[in-house]
Amino acid sequence: MKLNDLQPNDGATHNSKRKGRGIGSGKGKTCGVGQKGQKSRSGVAIKGFEGGQMSLYQRLPKRGFKNKFGKNYTEMTIARLQQAIDKKLIDAKGMIDEDALVNAKVVTRKKDGIRLLGHGVLTSKVELKLSGATKGAIAAVEKAGGKVDVIERKAPAPRHKGKAEAK
């Protein structure tokens, strides 16, 4: 095999349309874009434009908002935790934190933290250190003789001081 012998497989490529090369080509003169006007020229971006009328996406009602301080937690149930202990993926004797759960592949990733949900039954005594837990989950862990330590999130700093605080 030589470099000058290399070529693509049959049917893998096709010739591009030769626009503006005479009337016989079928794409001569106007090159298939029609006659005159904005759409026949370059630099056209009129998607969503309705001739000056208020466009559809502006007429439709808007709902909700995006909370910039909101957190996206990975959720883990008590049943999943007990299943991981039973399979010996994690050691129930020591402190179980978010990194240990990720390393043991109990959860895929921790995002903004891991939140424990109270679905399922826990039989092992465990000590957990997580970003969040529901009241039912905390009660279930304490019932089994364990403890849940919820990591406190820092409140966002105020963006500006008021006149009274500045003085």
Explain this structure to me?
The protein is built from five helices and six strands; from the N terminus they run αβαβαβββαβα. The longest helix is centred in the middle third of the chain and has 9 residues, at 78-86. The strands form two sheets. A three-stranded parallel sheet has the order 1-3-5. A three-stranded parallel sheet has the order 2-4-6. The protein has a domain at 74-150: Ribosomal Protein L15, Chain: K, domain 2. The chain has helices at residues 56-59, 78-86, 98-103, 135-143, 163-166; strands at residues 74-77, 95-97, 114-117, 127-130, 132-133, 147-150. The N and C termini lie far apart (83 Å). The model has no long low-confidence stretch (mean pLDDT 89). The chain has 167 residues and is an alpha/beta fold.
List the helices and strands and how they pair.
Blueprint: H1 56-59, E1 74-77, H2 78-86, E2 95-97, H3 98-103, E3 114-117, E4 127-130, E5 132-133, H4 135-143, E6 147-150, H5 163-166
Parallel strand pairs: 1-3, 2-4, 3-5, 4-6
